[in-house]
Each structure stands twice: as structure tokens, then as C-alpha cells.
User: What shape does this take?
Amino acid sequence: MPPSPLADLRYWLAHLRGLLRRGLSSLRARGWRVTWQRAVLQLRPPPAPPRTPLYRPAPGPFAPFAVPATAEGGVPRASIVIPVYNHAEATLACLRALAAHPLAAACEVIVVDDGSSDETSAWMPQVAGLRYHRRAANGGFIAACNDGASLARGEVLVFLNNDTIPQPGWLDALLATFDARPDAGLVAAQLLYPDGRLQESGGVVFDDGSCWSYGRFEAADDPRYAYLREADYGSGAALAIPRDLFTALGGFDSRYAPAYYEDTDLAFAVRAAGRRVLVQPASRVLHDEGTTAGTDTGSGIKAYQVRNRGVFASKWSDALRAQPPPGVVPGPALLHARQRRVLVVDEAVPRPDRDSASLRQFNLLRMLRAAGAHVAFLPTGLAHAGEATQALQRLGVETWYAPFATSAPAWLRDHAARFDVIVLTRHHLATAFLPLLRRHAPGARLVFDTVDLHYLRERRGAEVAGDAAALRAAEATRARELAAMAAADLTLVVSAEERTQLLQDVPGLRVELLSNLHDVAGAGAPFDERSDLVFVGGFRHPPNTDAVLWFAREVFPRIRRQLPQVRFHCIGSEPPPAVQALAGEPGIVVHGYVPDVSPYMERVRLAVAPLRFGAGVKGKVNLSMAHGQPVVATSCAVEGMHLHDGVDVSVADDAAGFADAVVALYGDAARWERQARAGLDNIDRHFSPKAAEATVRRVFFD
Assistant: This one.
């Protein structure tokens, strides 16, 4: 669709108005220093994605060294099979790369020498840990690989060309894919040219049997090629397959001997057996394409590539009818055309270790992927978030960032039409983007995900503070939020109370309840092995700051008078100075951001949720209950969570009552155990992915 200057202008005006309103709201709630810091982050250009330096072993004359090996009597997780025919220097560099970086999994390295006449036979026996097998006669790539597979003892076979330089973490990423995707039958690495350009991120097969190396000569970090996805095939230069499956399929088909199309054929056989063929870009391997076979398809072994295309096309003629014609240029729109396609738009990628909204969003993306949808994620700030972005890509989410996306409106103009469902997160994004999406994606279902009702949270905060100006601002937020809901096709809320409120405010509005999403982690340590109190919550969220200050000043001193040894652990990113200052108070430990809070969920006796205002469903309460940790909370903190005081939670709203509830539960093992079990059951029934399946189906697939 051609650009619309008027539509873009409307977006930018709405965007600027939203920034101004949010800045004023932040000034009231957080003060000018924090507001200025957030404004700088919002307005600065997004940084370039992080570049991982390419590893190359230092050249040098041969000297004995050791490669990874499994202890005698042990069973390796992976068997790395390297077929070689001469080019001893290339083989040496490949083995040095394997030796340079420890592997997480136990493995063995097998070099199959297909009759080399150079230094290969002299050098390989001197490499400690290496299993070296010399074939009696040269038989070609397929014969060498099948011989190596017959010698392997590992659960997973990993075929690796000798003209490759595996990058750090390459094997761990391949094996982790099988762990995360039990339906995976073949996983290929992303191949790079020695200069760092992309050689292949999986392959595409056309209906005449010809192939396309997806992403060739492009940037390896380009979002189109950087996420886990299904591929038609993966190059045999670096691919992994369960050994039992490889054996059941008969190995590489010898009709393609000596080489070419055997990897494509194997991928089609894996798919015919009901398993997935995936490319894992987190596994990167430098490949000096042409070192061993050259590049001229008119002569030498490379000529078999032309012949074997006909052999392959004849064998798989029925399957090839479903493939695209050779005249098209593959891209995400073509590769995912048969899937339900969902786009999620938010300010930044989710960081599930930092806030409950991120955890809910990440788990929703995971559910959509598990249900077979193709999912793309557009952070409007366009910043690559390092590990958080890579986590989405490993999940199989097409995640965008600068410089590959120049602006959110421009990206939507180019890409929005390929999606069936588009989710806009938070009301200020919905207000700005809904008009653009009506133009650029007229056939898409537009979903507004509230996360929580902002106007309800703002109103309650204003009432607690007695701030008339903030109360007026909350009513203005309400008008904008309801307008965004009216403009969307469907609105998501996180609690039944919010849905009831909205249907009263806007009768006829299509509202679906999609609450927090948590895996049930388990019971954790028993009562006698636990101690202390814990609060978890990010401090960019004003209700959390108010809650911690109120608890520390009004409640905790009352608790310490009865439990003088108990400590209060305060966990959450970006604590403001007032919260940091609490670290000087007796028994209070301010941890700030903690990457993994599980030990505090599993070893601390009680969690507290002393929120005096807020909206939505409180992830901190869900998180504790999912780990078998009982919670003492205010009424506001348990709103919409199907909880009952004295059964699966303890509720108190004034300082004295809250302190008494903590002390009583802290010392009563039988009651503690009953509440812990009831909390786990509550998560399973109301907040687990299983509980959300029907809603996800209605919203995204029906």
C-alpha cells in the first residue's frame, strides 16, 4: 500500500501527545529526575544490535592438542561426525575451534577420513580424545557420513563439514532446541561466510526441486533470518538429528552418492516421518563454502548437484507440489503463509525476569508458538534488548529492531498486511497506531491488550494521595482508554472485575479475559526450612514504591517486635532513593534487581503484597503461589484473583491487622501448609497456560 502522509502525521501527533501526557503523569508520580531519565531513553535513537565477534582459531603449525570427549564408559549426548578428504589444514582449524570453547553437553568427535593423501593421517591420531576412523577406500561424502553415524554412540548425531569454524555455543544451541521442541527431528545451524555475511539460514525448496539458500549475502542479524523457524531443509555442513531417527530413515540416501541433495532429501524424509525440520540461528558456524568441492557445477564432484536435483525431484514429486514456484523471492510472508500470523506491538520486548506484565506477554507468545502460529514482535522503540530479544528469537518469534526497521509506522506500512491478528499493548500505543493499522492492515483483527486498566490504577492512586489534579488526569486517561477499546475489534483484560466494569461503561464491547500466565513451579522447601519475608516488584510501577514504603514504615516494625529475627527482603529493579534508604533499617535488605528470584520464592517463608492501590491482577502474588509460598496481602492486591481470606491467602488492609496476619501465619506450620497447597491449586485452575487455552483459541485462531 502506498504511503499516506496524512495517516503518518496523525500517528506522530498522537504519539507526541501521548509522550507529553505520560511525562506529566510521571512527574506527579515519580519526580523530575526519574521522568527525565525515562524521557532520554524514549527519545534517543535505538542502538545498533550487539555484534558477536566471530571466532577464528589462531593459525600455526600442527602440535598435539585435545578435543572434547566423554569419559570412558560414559554415553555422550552428541556425536560430532566430521567427514574429511584431504584439506588437513581446514580440518585442523575446525578441531581447534571445537577444543577452544567448553561444551555444556558431553560429546564425542569422530573424524572419518575418506582416503586422504595429505597430512590428515599423520595429524589426526595425535589429537587427544578424537575418534579417528580411516576408510579403506574413497567413497564420497555420503558414504563417509553414514560410516561415521554407524560408529557414533551419542543420542544426537551432529554432521559437521571440515571446512567450518563452529562459533562458541553452537552445539549447545542445537541441543537446546531438541529439549525445547520435542517434535524437532532435524535442526540446522545458521551458516556464515568467513567475512561474516549470511550464507544460509535454512533453505527453501521450490516445486521443481531447485533450492534457495535463505538470506544469502544478507546481514546475519537481520530479523528475517535470526529466529528459530521451520525450514524446508538445512545444509549438511552443520546439522543435528537424533541418531535413532537417522537410523530409522536409513541414513543419507546412497542414490545421491557421492554427494549433493542428500541433506535436502533427509529433511523431506524427517518431515514425512512426522517430525519438524528447524533452523536455529543461535547456532552459528562459519563455512568456507567450496573449499572441499569447489563451486563449478559443470565439472568435478559439484556436477552431481545438477544431476541429483532430478533424482530428488522424481523421488519427492508429490511433496514438491506444495512448494512455491521458482520465480518467487522467499520472505516471511511466503514462508509463513500457511500459518496463523500474529503481530504483537509494544514499547519494548518483554523482560519476564523484571515484571509480571512481561512474564504474561512472554508466556502468551510461547502459547501462540506452541499452537502453531507464526508470531512477530515489533518494539516501537526499535532497540535490540540483548538477551531478552534473543530469548524471543530462540522461541521462534520474528523480532524486529533498528537498523533493519527504521520507524514503527514505516515498518507497519510495509509489513502489517501480512498478519491475521495484531495486538496493541497499552492504551497510548493503541491510540496512536489503530488509525494506521486500519489503513495498512484492513483485514486484520485488531486486539487492544490493556495489561491493566490504567485509569482505574491512576484513580486509586490519586484517591490514596488525595490529589485532585491526579484524579482529573485519571478521568482523562479513562476517556482515552475507552476510546481505544471502541476503536479496536476486541479488548483483553486481566481480571473478571475489570471485564464487568468495562461492560458497564461500554455495553456491547467485545471483552475477553486473559489473565496472568504462570507455570506451576512446585512446592519449594518445606515450612521448617524457610524463613523471612519477601516482596517482589519493579519500582517503575508507582504502586510498588508506595507499598514498600508503607510496609517498611508502618507494618514491619510491628512484626519485628514479635519476630525480632525476621528479615524483609525487598526485590525489584530500579528502586528509588526512598526505597534504597530502607536498607539502613533493622532487618530490611534491599536487593534491587535479582536475575533469578526462584531461590527467594522457594526458601523464604512468606511473601507480602501490601499494595494500597493498583489495578489488574498482581503477578507478585501469582509468582509466590506458583512456588508454594503463602502470601499476606491487601484487598487491592488480591482483587480479581479468585482468592479467599484464610483459605489460599491472608488478607489485611490496616497496618496492625497486616502485621498480625504475618505473625500468625509465620508461626503456624499446619495453616502455612494448607495455604501453600491451596495457592498452588489456584494457579493451576486460573492462571496456568492450560487455564488460558480456550481464550487464546477464541482471540487468536477463531
